[in-house]
Amino acid sequence: MKTATSRSPGAALAALAGAQFTVMLATSIVNVALPQIRDGVGLSDNGTTWVVNAYGLAFGALLLAGGRAADLIGRRRVLLTGIAVFGAASLAAGLAASSPALIAARAAQGLGAAAIAPAALALLMELFPPGPGRGRALGVWGAVSGAGGAAGVLLGGVLTQAWGWPWIFYAVALGALLVLVGVAVSVPRTPVTGGGGGFDLPGSVAITLALTSLVWGLTTARRSGWTDDSVLGAFAVTAVLAAVFVLVERHHPNPLLPPRLFRAGRVAAGNLLMALLGSVWIALFFFLPLYQQQVLGSSPLVAGLGQLPLAVANMLGSTLAPRIARRIGATATVTTALLVEAAGLLWLSRLSAHGGYLTDVLGPSTLIGLGLSIAFVQLTALSVEGVTGQDAGLAGGLVNTTRQVGGAIGLAVLATLAGTTTAGAAGHQPHLEALTAGYRMAFDISSAVLAATAALTLLLDRALHDSLTSWLAALKARAEQAD
To answer: Which of 165, 175, 195, 367 could form a disulfide with 344 if both were Cys (CB 3.0 to 4.6 A apart)?
Structure first.
């Protein structure tokens, strides 16, 4: 067997990128096939949303625990276990003959993904030390992350139209098997660096239940409204569990979120910005295929093929991101990328109920793909900047959590606003016009969120610079007093 030093870094990167690709693929591959899945297993309209939500809920709620487990147990071991669970759950989803079985399988997929994403990112950080090599590796990571979301829509459309909805899950299961072999062969074993003190089980349970309650409340709010008793109850439970989590973290010898993590580099700023980017990202891949199918009348296959330019732009932007950052700096790169994506969404918000793909979708989606990919690569780098080896898995889990939870919040808010806009327009506009008005509202607000995020990027960078300057001045003053 090859040793850690004799294995090819390129092959290891390919395997780790493949693992991330499968996770992102599973996030969006069901979107185009939802009508066929609903009819196939007899889901209600409300039940159909849980084909998406079950995966996102388990994924987002368990990421922090998955990242910490990777640090304490071993990243390669957790990654292989997560891929195996993910693949088996994908196969079970394809074979599901009832709605409970399908939703349970999707939740199990999310469980596997929560182990895969942080462990794979931590291994990438470990195999590629800070420098140009890590920048290129994160570029590949960003390319497959964005391409996975777009490819999910494309592959979902192709497979659903050709062989039926179960094949979207069979394809994911096959991909997981190939990734499992690739990781086993090409990714070396690395030492466990998570330190002592044991696993923070109380903290992990508290934050997992808090995130579960939060995501459940948000997804329920899309259907029942923000003032529904069950929604308000879920948010209240979230607040109580979050308070319990804070108390546990203060007293545990090896807390799930140690304070040192947020003193490293720009971890806190990177995660805040990633949450805002995620709030728009997830919603984009939800609304755009719906517009193509429900308004433009595209088939699942055509709607999927329509994502190709976005995917190509995403891969191009991810490749260019490290080079751009070396030339103009990380802050300028993130700010510019966010503004480019905001411009694309503003353009998309002008779409028409009687338009077409070439006039309403192609141009803005290409612009969005470029901005999204560059911002994602750089914010991922910021979110793990300065993190020590013992916390690499946790940092990977945290940045994925903020993106996923931000996406759940963004999708819930945007879906509610879009639905309200459509309902308000339905009384005096044709059906397609009313639907389009809702989609325009979602894209308009998404553009505004990203523009505000770009401004926040500059403010946070300035605040960090001022804090660092003050800290250095205080050190200098102490040194002068000592002399």
So the answer is: 367
Residue 248, both tokens = 């546990």
Provide CB contacts within 8 A for 183, sequence distance 6+. 15, 16, 19, 76, 79, 80, 83
Neighbours of 468 (CB within 10 A): 10
CA 13 to chain CA centroid, nearest Å: 19
| Both structure tokens of 291 | 């517009």
Taking the CB of residue 46, how many other CB atoms lie within 10 A of it? Answer: 11
Q: How far is CA 142 from CA 109, 111, 266, 322, 380, in A?
A: 21, 22, 19, 11, 8
167-209 pLDDT, tens digit each: 999 999 999 999 999 999 998 887 766 555 567 788 888 888 8
Q: What is the pLDDT of residue 91?
A: 95
Report d(CA 252, CA 260) in Å as an integer: 14
Could you tell me the two tokens for 104? 């349970």
Residue 8 binned pLDDT confidence (cut-offs 50, 70, 90): confident
CA distance 71 to 376: 24
Conformation bin of residue 200: beta by default, left when phi > 0, alpha when psi is -120 to 50: beta
Helix axis angle, 45-73 relative to 392-426, nearest 10°? 170
Of the candidates 321, 323, 381, 318, which has an alpha carbon nearest to the alpha carbon of residue 124?
381
Local structure of residue 189 (DSSP, 8 states): P
